[in-house]
Amino acid sequence: MPSADVVIIGGGASGTSTAFHLAALGVPNVVLLERRYLASGATGKSGSLVRMHYTNETESRLAFESLKIFQDFDAVVGGHCGFETAGFIQIVPSGYERALARNVERQRQIGIDTRVISRDEVRRLLPGSHVDDIGAAAHEPGSGFADPNATTFAFAEAAKRLGATLKLSCEATRIITQHDRVAAVETTQGRIDTPVVVVAAGAWAGHLLQPLGLDFGLTPHRVQISIFRWPPGFAGRHPAVIDAVHRLWFRPEGQASTLAGVELGVKHADPDLLDEGVDPGYVARCREKLAARLPVFGEAPMRGGWAGLIMMSPDGRPIIDQIPSVPGLYGMLGDSGTSFKTAPAIGRCLAEWIVYGKPRTVDLTPFRSTRFAEGQPWHDEDNYGTERLTISR
Ligand SMILES: Cc1cc2nc3c(=O)[nH]c(=O)nc-3n(C[C@H](O)[C@H](O)[C@H](O)COP(=O)(O)OP(=O)(O)OC[C@H]3O[C@@H](n4cnc5c(N)ncnc54)[C@H](O)[C@@H]3O)c2cc1C
Fold first, then answer.
1. CA 54 to ligand 1 centroid distance, Å
2. Ligand 1: distance of its center to the CA of 195 in Å?
3. Residue ranges of domains in the chain, CATH in brackets
C-alpha cells in the first residue's frame, strides 16, 4: 500500500505552494494530487493582482510575506512567477477617506511601502483618468501582478526537485479516518495511507468535506474577466487598480491590453458544470465601468475573456486551519476570490504548522474554521461599505 507523510489535495497556487514549503522544510514523502492539470481551478483563471491593501492587518501581513517571495522568486523557489512591479492603486468613494488613511497607516506599520495619494497623483499615475469622483486613494509602488500559471508550475517543479511526488489526473475521492483522525486518502488511482491531509481543492472541496460531516457554509461562485485592447492614444502601461467607486479592478495584460473585472453578477455555480467563457453582457458591463474611470476605453476592442470558479466563505475570508474535529486534517478553504497573492505565505504557514506544530510566519488564528460556530465571523471596522468588495482580487 503506498503511503505518504502528507497528502495535498489540489494543484492550484495553494496546494503547490504548500507542497514546495513542506519539501523545503525537509518532509521527505509529500504527495500532491490534482484531479485534472496544474492550475486548472481558480488559479489558472486568476486576475493575479498582487497588492497589500486589505482592510485588516492579518491579510496584509499574508500578502506582504508573499510579496517578498514573488519579488525574489528565483532565489527562494526557483524559476519564474511573472511578477511585474506595475504598482497598485486602491481607490475608494467619498466617505471612506479616514478608513483608507487608517488602513494605509496599519500597512505602513508592518513595513509595507504605501501611502495616501491625491487625485492629481492618481491622474499622473493613470493618465487620462477621470478623478473627480474619487474620495481617497492609496498607492503601492512595489506591488503589481504575477502570472498565476507560471507561479503554480514553478512551485510544483521546485517541490518535485526537493523530492515531492505530483500525481496529475488523479482525483481524491474520499478522506478516510480511523479512530476519528486522518488515516488515508482514497483516489482514482488507489489508496494512499497518510497521517496528514491538506485540502486545497478550491471550489470542489465540498465533495471531500461533506462525508466528514464538515459544513463551513462554503459556496462556489462563477466569476469573470474581460480583456480590452488599448485604444488609440492610450499611453502605455498602467498600474493595477482596485476601484471601489465603480466596483472594478484592472491591470495590464500582455503588451497592449488591459484585463478588467467588475464585482457585480457573481452567482452560485455548480463546480462540475463550469462554462469557461465570458458572457456578452459581462463584457459590456466591464467596458462601461472601465470607461467611467478611463474614458478612452469606451472604444476599446474586446480581446477575449473567461470565467473561473472561486469558493466564497460566509464572511468572504478564507478558512486556513487544522480542522479541530479531525486531527491530521488541514485546509485552505473558501479562497473567496482573493487568495492567489497570499498563496506563497499560506503554503509556508501550513507547512510550518505541520512541521513545527504552529505557523511561524503569520498568526492564522483569525482564519480559524470555528469562527462561524463561535458567532464571530470576520468583520473589519475600516471596510469600504461592502465588506466583500474590499477583499475581492
Ligand atoms: C477571475 C478570477 C480573478 C481572480 N483575481 C484574483 C486576483 O487578482 N488576486 C488574487 O489574489 N486572487 C484572485 N483570484 C482568486 C485566486 O485565483 C484564488 O483565490 C486562488 O487561485 C485559489 O487557489 P487554490 O489553489 O486555493 O484553488 P484552485 O486554484 O481552485 O485549485 C484547486 C485545485 O484542486 C483541484 N481539485 C479539486 N478537487 C480535487 C480532488 N478531489 N482531487 C484532486 N484535485 C482536486 C482542482 O482541479 C484545482 O486545480 C481570482 C479568481 C478568479 C476566478
1. 20
2. 25
3. 6-46+149-217+315-391 (3.50.50.60), 87-142+219-312 (3.30.9.10)
